[in-house]
């Protein structure tokens, strides 16, 4: 239970945050017609990509650092509370089916644990110690990268995760939506996407959440491109775990090779459904075993393996 003095200090702190600012011009938005509210909200959202664009050099530098560590076996760990934590868990959970990442290669930590994904556990965000314990449970070390996510940039769980990860020698990234944030200051790579006050005062699941989602999309997607998980703009490492994804795998092999369907089916069957292996077998004119060996020797980079096969 916080004291009255602590509550007053927190209130004063929130009053300084752009993400918490009150918009008097929207004070009667509840009296507008539905279409008008939708237009206002859509106009607010339109400003988000431009705010992200101002941070592209910082985002790119962070991605290069993350990819370098993941190439030598490190992990990408997201840490946040509330909406920010859920966005990190979402991004992490989509990496295995999209890029066939190994279990635990991309991890999302949310204050309060998995139950906080569906049930509010907002009190857990106040503990730096909880963040440190969650990272220690993963055995975070110098090859890993930890991305703290917090719209306000002050959330103790996210700041604590970055501070502890830095002490452990991991690469650290602080993603917030306020300038001059404690989170960005604590991290090696500070990314501050300032989207301005929200439509609903303090509801940072709106513009701030959209901005965080866009940046997390960049971090995971571009990192995976750098790790050879794609061939051009094709998801050649997609995990074909259902009929839709199996059909997508066949289409990916077709787009990459232009081969007839019978050849594609045969290559996928010989490669146990692995699109990347099938593409290499077809374009490199090698058998499945050779394709697997060449991909292993090239650390999974299809272009490098293809050059080796053709050379």
Structural description of this entry:
Helix 5 packs parallel to helix 9 and helix 12 (275-283) crosses helix 13 (288-297). The protein has a five-stranded parallel β-sheet with strand order 2-1-3-4-5, sandwiched between helices. It has 311 residues and is an alpha/beta fold. It is built from 14 helices and five strands.
Largest sheet: 5 strands, parallel
Order of helices and strands: HHHHEHEHEHEHEHHHHHH
Q: Report the average pLDDT across residues.
A: 93
Low-confidence stretches: none
Task: List how many beta strands DSSP finds.
Answer: 5
Q: Could you give the distance between the termini?
A: 68 Å
Number of helices: 14
Pfam family, one: GKRP_SIS_N
Function: Specifically catalyzes the cleavage of the D-lactyl ether substituent of MurNAc 6-phosphate, producing GlcNAc 6-phosphate and D-lactate.
Subunit structure: Homodimer.
Pathway: Amino-sugar metabolism; N-acetylmuramate degradation
Provide the fold topology.
Elements (H helix, E strand, L loop, with lengths): L3 H12 L18 H13 L1 H6 L2 H16 L4 E5 L1 H18 L6 E5 L17 H11 L6 E5 L6 H12 L3 E6 L5 H5 L2 E4 L14 H20 L16 H15 L3 H10 L4 H9 L4 H10 L4 H9 L1
Parallel strand pairs: 1-2, 1-3, 3-4, 4-5
Helix pairs in contact: 4-9, 5-9, 6-7, 10-12, 11-12, 12-13, 12-14, 13-14
